[in-house]
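Researcher: Please predict.
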Amino acid sequence: MSGRPKLVITGAAGFTGRHACQYFEKNGYEVIGITRNKANDLKASKQIQCDLVNKEEVDDVIRTVCPDYVLHLAAQNHVGNSWVQPVQTVETNALSTLYLVDAIRQVNPACKMIITGSVLQFEPQNFETLPHPYSFSKTLQIMIAKAWLALYQLNIIIAKPANLIGPGESNGVCAIFAKQLVEIEKSEEEGILEVTNVHVRRDFLDVRDAVRGYGVLLERGKCGEEYEIVSGTSRSLGDIIHYLKRHTKAKFNVLTKSNTAGDIFTGNPDKLSALGWRPQIALDESLADILDYYRKIEKPV
């Protein structure tokens, strides 16, 4: 027995999951990384393969591990894919959460859980505002978590991250830009960076700061509360390109599909900040790290 608190991290092989495994292993937890398929170079005490939409497999894992903490990161996070595979998106995001919280209910109701929702959730009483199947799946996920919290008094915290960025394999817009720029660098020719709308503004936060935020919530977060995992500052896609340009020798032109005013999202980190959390990694540093990550990959996908 290690004597360390046992932390189950689902989606351990994903973008945030890999950072989370490494962070919590270094900070005194015995990390059990849950992955669908075997993952290489996972910084966890143990890796368990489990299909989270298979109730029997989830029950077996939780019964075997009996965790003290759970960080539920596993998700289908691609909005575009949710239109093509809506049922799979709902299963992955909502059904897996139901199986997980119910397994905890049966094995260790005192286990402290973080369920990661999304700032893209919608208000269930107003379906006219529903933007896409992904939003529906994440809203349903949080409704399930809140229901099991209310019905069975489970120790559940809701975390709502926005646009997480940083080194590692990601399908986010910053990673997409960085991949294109690294390809242009390697070609040593002038290239084109395609952007839907440079005026769209989003709240970007380094994934390593987000993981530290999850650590703060495990230690001091209040069960039943929702916390936005955000920077509190919005940046336009034009700003992102400007920062990336500082760190690349690539010569490129920006091709914009729309030049209309873009929508704006800025999160509110006040509740998390009240627990002592602050972002530590500047946007400029995050973007430089993303470029460096893709430069180390021989052929960016």
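Model: The mean pLDDT is 94.
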